[in-house]
Amino acid sequence: MASAARLELDALSPGAALRSAAGCAVVLVVALPVTGPRAAAASTVGALLASIPALSGARRRPLAAMVTTTFGIALSSSIGSVTANVSCLHLVVLASSAFAGGMLVALGDACSVVGTQAAMAFVVFGRFAESAPVAVQAAGYVAAGGALQVLLAAATRWPLALRPLRRALADPYRALADLANGDPERSGLSAGLALDGAGAALTAPQTFRRADVSALRSLVDEGRRIRVELVDAVDTLAGLLGARSASRQ
Description:
By secondary structure, the chain is mainly alpha-helical. Helices cover about 75% and strands about 0% of the residues.
């Protein structure tokens, strides 16, 4: 309960949120007078769902995930709208797509987000039964909104989601640097606790099967080795200083 109620301000990404909101607003403002409210709504939904990969967790290539999401939501929206007239068929396709989206979790965080957004698009547009030409046209508007969001993300260089993980890894290395100063009164416990915290952050479920996160995990392992050597060096230095002081006495 305490962890659920805790507000972690370091995890907030206001820049990414503003970029996502700006992309949705631009799509809505441009499409509304040109295509009408229904097409503008479809384009805005496409822009919104396409922006989710850049907002939800760590990814090695967020633009690739956004492009894949755009394709997935466009395909799912057209299938959901076309099959909405036949309830049995619609439910079978919905169950199959939901199962496939759930299984994508095994392929990592980015694939999980793509599957979730595609399932959401199927549910949203599946409420509106349309003929095949109209459904394909609506899917085109969805894809256009998602494409604009991808272009906006590429133009503004969306912040890397690994930044909070790098920040978490920087704290234990600062503690190691303090320990390396050779102060005999300084304990290696703070560095050990900081390394344990960084290790916990880097083993979170959203970092599963991430090749770029594995490099950060190796830094945690290296930090633990450095800590052990520094603690031994500090203890040895303290022993030498104690022996010298005793010999002088």
